[in-house]
Amino acid sequence: MHGILPTTVDTVPAREHPELLAEPVTAALADLPADLELQAFPIDPELADTQALTDALGLSLEHSANCVLVAGSRAGEERIAACIVLATTKADVNKRVKKLLDVRKCSFMPMDRATGESGMEYGGIGPIGLPADWRILVDSRVVAQPAVVIGSGIRASKIVLSGADVARLPGVEVVEDLAIEV
Predict the structure, then answer these.
(1) What is the residue range of 90's domain?
(2) Could you tell me the end-to-end alpha-carbon distance of the chain, in angstroms, rounded to an integer?
(3) Residue 27 within a domain
(4) Has residue 7 been placed in a domain?
(5) pLDDT tens string 47-97
(6) Which residues make Cβ contacts (< 8 Å) with residue 169, sequence separation at least 6?
(7) What is the C-alpha separation between 120 and 100, in angstroms, rounded?
(8) Going by fewer Cβ within 10 Å, which terminus of the chain is more open, N or C?
(9) Tell me, what CATH number does 29's domain have?
(10) What InterPro entries does the annotation carry (predicted)?
(11) How many domains does one find in the chain?
(12) Is 135 inside any structural domain?
């Protein structure tokens, strides 16, 4: 399943290696289906950003899923969502996400707030372990991938799993056309 990674990258079962995960991610593992296969692998923290990692490992951008956090409000109620999209696309925040959240205006969460409220490091934020009241919107193109690399919550590692398993994560909503091609 994880044939997207070069043979020089050694993966390990994420559940057995909490040192490769942020605390919120480790805590969330107990709520994941037992048969969900999560593999983790260490990286140089300087490679945490998608383009740097794909260049260094020779990965295809179609196998990297980015997580962007967005927020908007309606009638004084803030609505937050994590949008999981392939690196070949970008979340359609101004139209699709705004409509899904039913807000007048939707914007990217500032970095300090995103890291503070998620408990994850910038460049490592992923869909596992996010606050339970945040929506997790996943573009259907992510689910169609045989394997994708996602954030582990820290810059020094990544998680790889099947796109189908991304759809099985707690709270995930699979959305057609959540993203637009770039």
Answers:
(1) 12-181
(2) 27
(3) yes
(4) no
(5) 999 999 999 999 999 999 999 999 999 999 999 999 999 999 999 999 999
(6) 32, 36, 127, 128, 136
(7) 25
(8) C
(9) 3.90.960.10
(10) YbaK/aa-tRNA-synt-asso_dom_sf, YbaK/aa-tRNA-synth-assoc-dom
(11) 1
(12) yes
